[in-house]
Design a protein that fits this description.
Elements (H helix, E strand, L loop, with lengths): L7 E4 L1 H12 L7 E5 L1 H6 L2 H8 L5 E4 L2 H9 L6 E3 L7 H6 L3 E4 L2 H13 L5 E6 L14 H9 L4 E7 L11 H20 L6 E3 L3 H11 L3 E4 L10 H4 L6 E6 L2 E5 L4 E2 L5 E2 L4 E6 L17 E4 L2 E6 L7 E4 L10 E5 L2 H10 L4 H7 L5 E4 L1
Parallel strand pairs: 1-19, 2-3, 2-9, 3-4, 4-5, 5-6, 6-7, 7-8
Antiparallel strand pairs: 1-10, 10-18, 11-14, 12-13, 14-17, 15-16, 15-18, 16-17
Helix pairs in contact: 11-12
The structure holds pyridoxal-5'-phosphate (PLP).
Length: 367
């Protein structure tokens, strides 16, 4: 790839390693870590991150088959859990040695059929129980049927049993979460007692590791956003290093006279003379129109420059009246975790959404 893009999302792999170690320090030494690299590695670069983390983690998780295909094609040999497979994905999943989350009777029957028809024996699958998120998974009452199906064949075996917490970051929901954990302990113990092999267990995401490592660590944790520098609470985020920096440059500086307007639909009207800088990034790159009209801001030469008017598809204008800057100067659209958290707050969302919104048009580079 050439250097013909000035708008770049820069990824700091050393910061990812620091963050991984920070979470490992909260865990028992024998607890395995699954690095969650779905959605292009939370909008960064799943392949680079997976290559870097492969020697350091036990597992990877992706949401969809295509994401697993990309990792296998990049030569990643680490076990990969596909969190949200469909029946039609199973043949490719098995051929690529990806491991499906099996969350329904339909999917369980289909994976047994598919492994049989491919003449595969003892294929690893992962059984998910729903304990309160009410998104995907079996419930306690499914145990007799799942165990009967599993015990009447040898095409697949249960490598792990898992569940997902609904509000791991919210300590006001501690009672609900502890009930979820207890429920998972009971359900998984009952289920495992019906099997001839012993699967391992996992339940915790990033905030789960922070808040429930002593109650629900089990054999593995599924670390996502924490790797990328966010812990969903300030004190913990402060211990993490910033991974993602979104950068661009000033294309042009304009002087807007009193009464003139800036951008589409003339959303900004100058009450006095202002100077604006035009930046080559827009809503097609993942900078939502919600950031427009002063809600969002970038950093130029260390100063905050608010977005002026509406965000366009391919560019946006910012107010640099009081900032000493020139065309070609660097612009930080995502400076660090604090900046991303503040932008998320101002647009009523969470860092997860801002990071994953950065579109594939934006070039990714390693720091
Ligand atoms: C995305 C996801 C995770 C990772 O969550 P974070 O909050 O990013 O750590 C873990 N488990 C499941 C099932 C997920 O879908």
């Amino acid at each position: 790839m050439g250097n013909n893009h000035v708008t770049v999302l820069e990824i700091d792999l050393n910061a990812i390693e620091h963050n991984l170690n920070e979470f490992k320090s909260k865990l028992n030494p024998e607890t395995k870590v699954m690095a969650v690299v779905k959605a292009f590695g939370y909008g960064s670069n799943a392949l680079e991150i997976a290559k870097f983390l492969a020697p350091k983690v036990a597992y990877f998780a992706v949401a969809y088959l295509d994401e697993g295909i990309d990792l296998r094609h990049a030569g990643i040999k680490t076990p990969i859990l596909v969190l949200h497979p469909q029946k039609i994905n199973l043949e490719q999943i098995i051929k690529l040695n990806l491991e499906p989350n099996v969350y329904s009777i339909t999917l369980l029957k289909a994976v047994i059929e598919e492994t049989k028809s491919l003449k595969v024996r003892n294929y690893p699958i992962h059984i998910k129980f729903n304990t309160g998120l009410n998104r995907l998974g079996f419930t306690k009452k499914d145990i007799p049927e799942i165990s009967a199906l599993l015990n009447s064949q040898n095409s697949v075996f249960v490598k792990s049993v898992f569940s997902h917490i609904a509000a791991s970051e919210d300590l006001n929901e501690r009672e609900f979460t502890l009930a979820q954990i207890n429920n998972f302990k009971k359900i998984s113990t009952q289920f495992i007692s019906q099997l001839s092999t012993t699967p391992f267990r996992h339940m915790l995401n990033t905030s789960g590791i922070i808040n429930y490592a002593s109650e629900a660590q089990f054999d593995m944790v599924r670390l996502g956003i924490g790797l990328y520098g966010f812990a969903n609470e300030d004190a913990e985020t402060a211990k993490l290093r910033n991974v993602i920096t979104l950068k661009s440059v000033i294309s042009q500086i304009n002087t807007i006279e009193k009464g003139d307007t800036v951008g589409y639909n003339r959303a900004f009207k100058a009450a006095e003379t202002v100077r604006t800088a035009t930046i080559p990034i827009g809503h097609a790159d993942g900078i939502s129109r919600q950031f427009g009209n002063g809600i969002g801001y970038v950093y130029i030469n260390g100063e905050k420059a608010p977005i002026v008017g509406n965000v366009c598809m391919d560019m946006m204008m910012v107010n640099v009246t009081d900032i000493d800057c020139n065309e070609g100067d660097e612009v930080l659209i995502f400076k660090d975790q604090d900046h991303i958290e503040e932008l998320a707050k101002r647009t009523n969302t969470i860092p997860y959404e801002l990071l994953t919104a950065i579109s594939q048009r934006v070039k990714r580079s390693l720091k």
